[in-house]
Amino acid sequence: MSGIRAYYRTRALEYDRVYAKPEWQDELREMERWLPAQLRGRRVPEVACAAGGWTQFVAAVARGVVATDAVPAPLEIAQRRIYRRDVAFLLGDAYHLPSDIGVFDATFAGFWLSPVPRSRQREFLLQLGERVQPGSPVILFDNLYVEGSSTAIAESDAEGNTYQLRAPGNGAVHRVLRNFPTDLELLTLAGSIREDAQFTRWRHYWGLAYVTPIGRRRGELVNDRLRLGLLAGAAVESGSRVGMAAGALISFGYVRGWRRF
């Protein structure tokens, strides 16, 4: 097992404690309301679901969820936490979701842009669009770096990736990739795929919502010009919600043969 997978395996039992900081609580309650509002009534693959802490909020309102993670240990916890017939758990690489899980009408990745190298961030977002119909919402959120609250940045590399040193329950220290894009970098990244990305900013977290292109081949490298003025106006302080363009809701059945973890 790679070093990073060993880290997530060890950390699996600590996921819920990650959210225990008092200064995060009000924002987390807002996010617990924000996320379901984006995905209500949708069929959703979740990338890097970890121990299912956010899967539970999506499952409560979605028509169905396939929650994936590359590490078995957190998936086992997630499956014990959420036992619903309309939720499946699968081992899956965040960059290459299984091809046989079907096509959906929304997708979600929580706290999984920060571990993506800068050189692969656009590839990752394009991959998220591979399993959804055109006109479907893509929802992401992650941490902002806040001095005095976030784990300190230990080092950076030539590409601009930043790393933290983390020691989960067994005491072993791991060098963990954690990137913290600025508001403009996030909007530029999303704007390379869609110009109507909507950005929500809390003090410690950010949320991003956009709709997959209609009338273009899924996975095509889209080189639309970024309208920075329009996008910058979508950035909202203090967690104020921004309207998201509604995608077409397309009904389809689940593909048989999903392997339940």
Task: Describe the secondary-structure layout.
Elements: H1 3-11, H2 25-39, E1 43-47, H3 55-59, E2 64-69, H4 72-81, E3 87-91, E4 107-110, H5 121-128, E5 137-143, E6 155-156, E7 162-166, E8 174-177, H6 183-191, E9 198-201, E10 205-211, H7 228-232
Parallel strand pairs: 1-2, 1-4, 2-3, 4-5
Antiparallel strand pairs: 5-10, 6-7, 7-8, 9-10
Highlighted features:
10 strands; alpha/beta; single chain; disordered C terminus; Rossmann fold
Describe this structure in words.
The structure is a single chain. Strands 3-2-1-4-5-10-9 form a 7-stranded mixed sheet, with helices on both faces. It has one domain (3-144, 176-239): Rossmann fold. By secondary structure, it is an alpha/beta fold. It has helices at 3-11, 25-39, 55-59, 72-81, 121-128, 183-191, 228-232; strands at residues 43-47, 64-69, 87-91, 107-110, 137-143, 155-156, 162-166, 174-177, 198-201, 205-211. Helix content is 23%, strand content 19%. It starts with a helix and ends in a 29-residue tail after the last helix.
Which whole number gives the mean pLDDT?
A: 80
Helicity level: 10-25%
Tell me the span between the first and last alpha carbons. Answer: 19 Å
Ranges where pLDDT stays below 50 over 5 or more residues in a row are 216-261
Would you tell me which CATH topology applies?
Answer: Rossmann fold
CATH level-two architecture: 3-Layer(aba) Sandwich
Please count the beta strands (DSSP E, at least 2 residues each): 10
Q: How large a portion of the residues is in β-strands, by DSSP E?
A: 15-25%
